[in-house]
Amino acid sequence: MARRDEIECWLTDMDGVLVHENQALPGAAELLQQWTDSGTPFLVLTNNSIFTPRDLSARLRASGLNVPEDRIWTSALATADFLKSQVSGGTAFVIGEVGITTALHEAGFIMTETDPDYVVVGETRNYSFEAITKAIRLILGGARFISTNPDATGPSKDGPMPATGAISALITKATGMEPYVVGKPNPMMFRSAMNKIGAHSENTGMIGDRMDTDIVAGIEAGLHTILVMTGISDEVEINRYPFRPDEIVAGVHELLTTEPVESDEIGFLDQSSI
């Protein structure tokens, strides 16, 4: 596995790594600028399939982060890329918003409610019983079941709300069919991201804040993995899993140093210092 100073390309999660509740995290702007100035290929990854890369670029810019839209890779784009590789000019019935519908349109897919090749479930804030019922009937009729990401809940100002994984579970219960999930923790999302920037696993690093998506997918894709403690993970969460990232750091501000971290220096941080 490559050391940090041998990494030539970077993939990084967005929420909990670069931003938190629309506020840039310490060191995020500087790290992005460092990569830009040095010509280091990078992509910002997110399982959120609601927004287009243009939307997300604007939202990040409002947070003080300069990320061009071609440097953003969403689960919607990864899903469209995968389906295009499976069926050229296919058809799909979609539960989701502009992020997934735009990605599928640009991949050459036609949206239809009549005998589609795929039923695709993505993130939305407007799930309808009618659409879910139609998806169930189409899957029972032979359409293949795809989900952009497995997240069961998403954040809101009032607390957790049902997300893509919860709706997919409802459809699974009604049909007996499990979806193929393209987004994290499927390492396919990382491989498609690396293909976009011409990267190779042996010299690519992945920065994330979740053990169950970012880190496990990075490990399975053969990447150098770095867990930041600015998201949802703490020592208790980390200890639940039998695998470990290559590095654990307080936040992306620590990655501004050029000093590599030896594997035997990796350990848990004192949470009181974060």
Automatic annotation (TrEMBL):
The keyword Repressor does not apply. It comes from the Bacteria. The keyword Transcription does not apply. InterPro entries: HAD-like_sf, HAD-SF_hydro_IIA, HAD_sf. Pfam families: Hydrolase_6, Hydrolase_like. One of its GO terms (molecular function) is phosphatase activity. Its cofactor is Mg(2+). GO terms for cellular component: cytoplasm. Keywords: Carbohydrate metabolism, Hydrolase, Magnesium, Metal-binding. This is HAD family hydrolase. It comes from Cryobacterium gelidum.
